[in-house]
Amino acid sequence: MDLPRGLLEGALEGLPAQLAILDGAGTIVYTNERWRSFGVANDIDGDPTSIGKNYITICDAAADDDEFAASTADGLRSLLAGEREEFSLEYPCHSQNEKRWFLLYARAYEFEEDRYALVEHLDVTDRKLTELELSESNAHLQTVAGVLSHDLRNPISVAVGYIAELEDRQGTPSTLVSGLRSCLERMQRIIDDALVLAREADIDELEPVHLDVAAMKAWRYVEVDGATLEVANSMQFMADPSLLDNLFENLFRNSVEHGSQSTVAANSCGCESSETMTIRVGALPDGTGFYVEDDGPGIPETQREEVFETGFTTGGSDNTGLGLTIVSNVADAHGWTVDVADASPGARFEFRGVGTAG
To answer: Rounded distance, CA 99 to CA 62, Å?
Structure first.
């Protein structure tokens, strides 16, 4: 069924983009309301409809001073010559009062054996400004990461060395010196966590990893406080090995620290408590990912949505409140989801969307 001409024109008039139709020579034969209103608002010389003007000729005239105009002319010329079927270009179009960016999209089509081009200009200023802000934020973040990595790590390492020398000279443990060492070690851990957060979206080349191997590797770098690790089963999947190490280390450390605090609290009130904690790692039954769980005090249901927020902690003064944020960010960087699942007793974290390595 042929649609009425008025129905089609009404649809084109309502589009959010500025739209024009060019004939085979590049002459404008139709423009919609957005095109016309833009011309009026920006004091475009002549008829705001632009009908009868050759769009390619206009672009050619501005080509010496505007590289985007030159690219547009070349793109439209090749489109109408049948050398390509579509063409797109993002370009700035700043006014005296504001910065603006537009996306030009053109597509060729045939009508009654003649070739035409449908040209759209869509305002993408909001997206472009967001991209520029993000780029600036990332630059600042890299600067901060550099300061943390070099300008702070080095003097802290020197201070730890002085503490070690002081301990050797004293011979007997000193509460003051051990307190200083504890503060320095906490500062070092905060720096390490902050650096992971700074690069969490910076995925290096993905590699096939084995769940059991990755978990056991990370376990060696955690002060386990008598806890034990069990690997129920394994799976192979693609991941950034360095970030995966950070994920497991923070999960293990979180379990051990909260389990230790629970034991201390139980002992202080004369309650019975387990001497050790068991942490288990395994593949999910449906093959979509893996889990990490422990038999510690668990996470109250009311706090399960908060635990991944930066700075949230129920731990003591040594806890940075960044560990589970790092876990969540590493999962996001890989395109995985992480949820706190029901586990009694203990806490259970499930990672889905992991897939398998071929």
So the answer is: 20
pTM: 0.53
Tokens of 196: 């992971």
- CA 28: distance to chain centroid? 43
Per-residue model confidence as pLDDT tens digits over 325-335:
888 888 988 99
Answer whether 193's CB lies under 8 Å from 152's CB: no
Are 282 and 232 in contact by the 8 Å Cβ rule? The answer is yes
Would you tell me which CATH number, out of the four given (3.30.70.1290, 2.20.25.90, 3.30.450.20, 3.30.1330.10), belongs to the domain 15-123? 3.30.450.20
DSSP state of 84: -
User: What is the CA 27 to chain-centroid distance, rounded?
Assistant: 44
Over the stretch 208-263, which tens digit does the pLDDT of each residue have?
A: 999 999 999 999 888 777 889 999 999 999 998 888 988 998 899 888 887 655 54
CB distance 222 to 253 below 8 Å: yes
CATH class of 124-199: mainly alpha
